[in-house]
Amino acid sequence: MAKNAFYAQSGGVTSVINASACGVIETARKHPDKIGKVLAGRNGIIGALTEDLIDTSAESDADIHALRHTPSGAFGSCRFKLKDLEKNKREYDRLIEVFKAHDIGYFFYNGGGDSADTCYKVSQLSEKMGYPVQAIHVPKTVDNDLPITDTCPGFGSVAKYIAVSTREASYDVRSMSRTSTKIFVLEVMGRHAGWIAAAGGLAADKNNDIPVLILFPEIDFDQERFMAKVKAMVDKYDYCSIVVSEGAKYANGHFLAEQGTRDAFGHAQLGGAAPVVANMVKEALGYKFHWAVADYLQRAARHIASGTDVEQAYAVGKAAVEFALQGHNSIMPAIVRTSSNPYKWEIGEAPLSKVANVEKMMPREFITEDGFGITDACREYLVPLIQGEEYPPFENGMPKYVTLKNTAVPKRLPEFKL
Fold first, then answer.
1. Most buried of 31, 266, 382, 413 (most Cβ within 10 A)?
2. Interval 152-209: pLDDT, tens
3. E strand or H helix that includes residue 381
């Protein structure tokens, strides 16, 4: 008997996470003898706990395929982390109840490090609680901080957006620097890992001599050294662009942008590094400035997504289903780089025991000796990931995205309070 599959999206969404959903659902539909319906969790794992399930079989093939070019999370996402089985058995009992009630034998969870941890815990249900379920983690994170995989679907598109935005804004500042703005500061995402900030370094190349300084989370912020570097850049170019990661911090561990609050996962709530840095420069050097926070724009910009990223996002979704059909459990499809020039890659697999709660930081050899730029090795790594354009269709001058019906599956169990 074909078992149903559960699919859900978790954490901050990306411009290509729906491409992974497309890969999962389209591949599952090709195997009706093995997989019945794909039931999506409305708002991530919360949808499983509250039995708020979506029947994706009610969607047309055309609408499911349109997910490939539609940004954000088509089924809703969440920030919710399952506690250990010993600490909260109630939630795991509920999952099993829901899985049994809806004949679910496959669990595909699309997210980052915390989601990998949730998926790993679910994969252990069959052993610890006597219910067979194959759990496959589908990688996604703009931060590019999952281990083992060469890159994370979602990152290439954010990198492309930041590289393009930094170059275009730099051209703007350069044109006015003699009599107006000399400093432009762009704040990007990246709590502990500076991959997104590093992408700002791609704005400059052999044909674009642009002064770009980068503040990485991996390099302790030294205000005196930073101001000296800014002054040297302005003395030479008459202007300077600065890309600052939201996770940039002082040597004592305090973030430049820490607000003193915590998110749902217990992480420090960040935001506001750009104005902090811009005002530092103004006070120390007197330069006129502008600043911007890329925020949701960087992860929602499907109109300029990386073609490579879209292809890889779909591929990991497709591979997740194929791995499950082969009997695999507790793994994550990983992108394996086999060549950088020309760029070639393939799909491998990573055990969730080595993925969950592990962050991949920028290697020191990817950051210049002074700590403010990217090396040739970093450029060689990044450039292939932003290659290609897979534009969405446009209608009346605007990108045409799909909104699914998201038909609810009738509930069969008593209400569950989170």
1. 382
2. 999 999 999 999 999 999 999 999 999 999 999 999 999 889 999 999 999 999 999 9
3. helix 376-382
Task: State the CATH number of the domain containing residue 109.
Answer: 3.40.50.450
d(CA 273, CA 356): 28
Alpha helices in 78-202 (DSSP H): 89-101, 113-123, 125-129, 155-176, 195-199
Residue 394: strand pairing partners: 399
Q: Does 258 have pLDDT greater than 80? A: no
Q: How confident is the model at residue 126 (pLDDT cuts 50, 70, 90)?
A: confident
Q: Residues 24-48: pLDDT tens digits?
A: 999 999 999 999 999 999 999 999 9
Question: pLDDT confidence of 357, banded at 50, 70, 90?
Answer: confident
Q: Does 188 lie in the same domain as 117?
A: no
Write the CB contacts of 18 (distance below 8 Å, at least 6 apart in sequence).
67, 68, 70, 71, 72, 73, 74
CB atoms within 10 A of CB 231: 15
> Which pLDDT score is estimated for 367?
98
Residue 380 lies in a domain: no
State how far the Cα of 52 lies from the Cα of 20, in Å rounded to an integer: 21
Alpha carbon dihedral 210, 191, 45, 354, in 10-degree steps, equals 100
Written as six digits, the tokens of 185 are 């500061």
CA 301, distance to chain mean position in Å, is 13
Token pair of 369 as six digits: 């000796």
pTM (two decimals)? 0.95
Q: Is the dihedral of CA 79, 84, 89, 95 positive or negative?
A: positive
**Residue 143 bears catalytic tag:** yes
Q: Which of 266, 282, 301 is the last residue of a domain?
A: 301
The one-character DSSP state at 410 is P
Residue of 143, 145, 150, 309 with catalytic role: 143
Q: 163-166 — which CB contacts under 8 Å span 24+ positions?
A: 163/199, 163/200, 163/201, 163/202, 163/203, 163/386, 164/203, 164/304, 165/294, 165/298, 166/199, 166/200, 166/202, 166/203, 166/210, 166/212, 166/241, 166/243
d(CA 355, CA 111): 12
Domain that residue 92 falls in: 3-141+303-357+388-399
- pLDDT confidence tier of residue 266, bands split at 50, 70 and 90: low
